[in-house]
Amino acid sequence: MAGRAGNPTRDRPVALVLTRQAVPTLDRSRYAAADGLRRGAYVLSDPPDGEPELILIATGSEVGLIVAAAERLQAQDVAVRCVSMPSWELFDALPQAEREAVLPPSVRARLAVEAGVAQGWHRYVGDAGDVLSVERFGSSAPSNVLLREYGFSVEDVYRRALALTRRAIRYE
């Protein structure tokens, strides 16, 4: 299968994953172009001074949630980087310097938002980070109700992220 830019992908599976959820479309004049997905993870946005104190990470439908929470955090003078991470495998295949350019080791306050299990995310958030995830199954309700009940709201992400930044300041 040839990629759009003529990059053949013959050494691994390729998939296009879509959602039926009503997710916001990102304004690419404000946020990085989606071509960064070829690297597995890319910086969607950075604070105006370029030095984040917090990194929010998401993939798929959760990206809109971290972007909205980041706007609220920035209004409170929290320097936030948003990272879209659609593929762990592609990201892990990058050289260490490229991975650290996206997830700098100096920024220990990290929150991954995953409407699935947390398993695997801890290697990206580290020992000072956190994962907002769903660790149970069997609930039945409209998706907006389930997401709210599981804590997937802008307010919930905002509060968890703010707690991480406060914890990081205590340990500096």
**Any idea what the CATH architecture is?**
3-Layer(aba) Sandwich
| Share of β-strand residues | 5-15%
Tertiary shape: globular
Q: Radius of gyration over alpha carbons?
A: 16 Å
| CATH domain topology | Rossmann fold
Query: What's the number of extended β-strand segments?
Result: 5
The major pleated sheet works out as: 5 strands, mixed
The amount of helix comes to 25-40%
What do these coordinates show?
This protein is of the alpha/beta class. It has a single domain, classed as 3-Layer(aba) Sandwich (Rossmann fold), CATH 3.40.50.920. Helices cover 31% and strands 12% of the residues. It contains six helices and five strands; from the N terminus they run ββαβααβαβαα. It has helices spanning 63-75, 88-92, 96-102, 122-125, 143-149, 154-171; strands at residues 42-45, 54-58, 80-84, 110-113, 130-132. It has a five-stranded mixed sheet with strand order 1-3-2-4-5. The longest helix has 18 residues, at 154-171. The chain is globular. The termini are far apart.
Keywords:
6 helices; 5 strands; globular; single chain; 172 residues; alpha/beta; Rossmann fold
Compact overview of the structure:
This protein is of the alpha/beta class and 172 residues long.
